[in-house]
Amino acid sequence: MKLRAKAYTKMIFQLVRRLHTSPVCRAAESSLLAKLRKKTGYTIANCKKALEMHNNDSDKAEAWLNEQAQAMGWAKATKLAGRTALQGLVAVKFDKGHGALVELNCETDFVAKNDKFHKMMEDATLAAFKFAHTHLQAKGPITKMELDSEQLGNLQAEGGKKLSETLALFIGTVGENAVLRRAECWKANQNEVKITAYTHPAPATPGDYSAGKYGALLAYKQPNDLQDFGRQLCQHIVGCAPVKIGDKEKDKPAKNSDDETCLIFQEYLLDPSYTVEEVMEQNKLEIIDYVRFSCGEAVESNMPGVEKQPLDTVQTLQ
Amino acid sequence: MTGRLIIRSLYTNFTQHFALNNNTVCKNRILVSVFNVNFSTKPKSGFVEKKHCNVGTIGHVDHGKTTLTAAITKVLANDGLAQYVSYDEIDKAPEEKARGITINAAHVGYSSKLRTYAHTDCPGHADYIRNMISGASQMDAAVLVVAANDGPMPQTREHLLLAKQVGIQHILVFINKADLVDDELKELVEIEMRELLTDFGYDGNTVPIICGSALKALNGDESEYGAPSIRKLLDTMDSYIPPIVRDLTSPFLMPIDNAFTVPGRGTVVVGTIKRGIMKKNDDADLLGFGYNIKTTLSDIQIFKKSVSEALAGDNVGVLLRGMKIKSVETGMLLSAAKSLQMSNHYKAKIYFLTRSEGGRKKPIFSKYSQQMYSGTWNIACRIDLDPSQHMMMPGDHGEVYLTLLEDMVMTSGQPFTIRENNVTVATGIVTDTLKSIDVPKGKLGKVVMNYEV
Fold first, then answer.
1. What is the DSSP string of A257-292?
2. For chain A, which ranges sit under pLDDT 50?
3. Which chain B residue lies closest to A113 (C-alpha atoms)?
4. pLDDT tens-digit profile of B193-208?
5. Which residues of chain B have a pLDDT value below 50?
6. Do B295 and B287 form a contact (C-beta atoms < 8 A)?
7. Which of A168, B30, B332, B375 could form a disulfide with A77 if both were Cys (CB 3.0 to 4.6 A apart)?
8. Which of B62, B162, B188 has the CB atom closest to A30's CB atom?
9. Closest CA–CA distance from residue A70 to any residue of chain B (Å)
């Protein structure tokens, strides 16, 4: 109560002081500034500069801010470029024949929880997904394309902007370094090959897009008349982190089942009384390939079988 | 047990007469001091337990949290109240392992005129959550640092969300870099912060906001935004954050550490009163492991001295009327009659240790049943995840439902650990007591979960 009274007196004091010392127009400016900032979300100093430059015309100031944002974003991005960014998200988007797995990093997990980060993540994933569609070279049962930070930044997001430009804008807004770490784009070249994906934590209702700390893409074959095991198997891959699929003839199961790194010998996550291999046999499943991202892990040597291609050799429809 | 008590009381008497000049005494000094306090305990309402407070800084990476922390120690070091900790020392704080959990945190200690403070600074959300769950340091208040030239950032919402999540009730705002902008902008930042705080359920109008420059203070500047702003912040911390008071108003509660029979009198239970005041001839309940036994406190003793009442913090022996030693088990609770409800169903926040911290390698699913340890007892427990979650990976934290084999009393904030094959795999704190649910034939696997409670 005492505190509250104190605060009120302080507020009244400030109000009175303001009436005395500042002309009425100062208050109007201040509210203009407050409005502009609320509308655009740019930093206070920049909003003030914009208003000063345009004689308090908020429309012009806003236009100028939007123009400058890109340049300021780049400046900020360049300034922060060296800082470690190991937090962030892994997102997937897939349909029956295509899949994209993208990792976007930032410095603190506070930012990773922000809506703006989620929007950025979705834009990047959609761009990679579109790339998987327009990516034409067909070879083997599935075509895989691994994108590094630079290649990913060159992709075009919705609206024709480069992802790297959107990212710079984002860095300008949150003032924290962010990196488009890597992406994996897949396309199935045969009808019977299906692609599915899973992220952890999984959304309550399964959809074709999701984001989390871990993510995986899986390409598999399964006859249509049986219950679809793709998603569960993908969950297993996310949960148990196998290193490779494994070959029944060449590889041997590990002594301790907890340390098993071959997918086929691992205990099936959703029913540990079976191994993955047994589940595959029962359901006539065939795993063609998989890839798993864990957010913030150091980029390991490329997954076996993935050929690294320069972007410009890839034909696209555009 | 009686023998031990006699020796202990002799010991305390002994140490009162002779100077503390041998090693064994030093080792037990804490114990001794507790005993001495007990002898002199008198009912005083509103007794301030300790002038200590845990604070933390939260805010954007570039807004000067670390500089502020360094500046506080620097300013106080000049006044002889703290040891100066440089920016680099705080920034490069090594990972610490609290209860086996790796937390990135810098802990800095300093004292103001009134209190001692433990100051925590963590880089990420997950670190603060782990800090809370492992009980490394519970934060009583937080200083939200915001730079005057940037204003609140998009992620400031997430910072406040965290403060809510870890149960911080008192927030102070420090507007840093105030020397870089004019008054108009500072006012705007202040208005925006008050709005934002109100959005998150804090009393935005009364939250103290202090303007200053941590960098100036660190450089020893004595102008308005330099060192004086830091002193103002500390004074505000002293006055705004209420002191921790021993809870003497709630019904009494005492976890039982031990029990023995005094021939000719009955059963005596021993423990430390957690909260409230115990009076002779009060009605009480002895709760735990599915039992709820009504009894009366026939006698209360603090080290062989019969007293009419005992306060929170006192270590007491209580003679219970008509109680059989067989009915008492370590880990049970003695509470004021009808003040507590037992349940076997709780909501909790939990953290699963990663493989490198010695935890599990595989994910956790609902119906995960293991032994749970809390306080002086342990019991079989089943963990069910929130229905929106498929699984939890080691390293994840989240909300879970606990189902115990027997009814127990657990209070909100009570810590526990889950052990699997004698290895700690998870640690957590209770957040809510839910309605008891049926465990068919003592089999936790057959429990039907009802998430709508």
1. GGG--BGGGSBPTT-TTSBHHHHHHHTT-EEEEEEE
2. 17-27, 300-318
3. B158
4. 999 999 998 998 999 9
5. 1-2, 10-50
6. no
7. A168
8. B188
9. 17
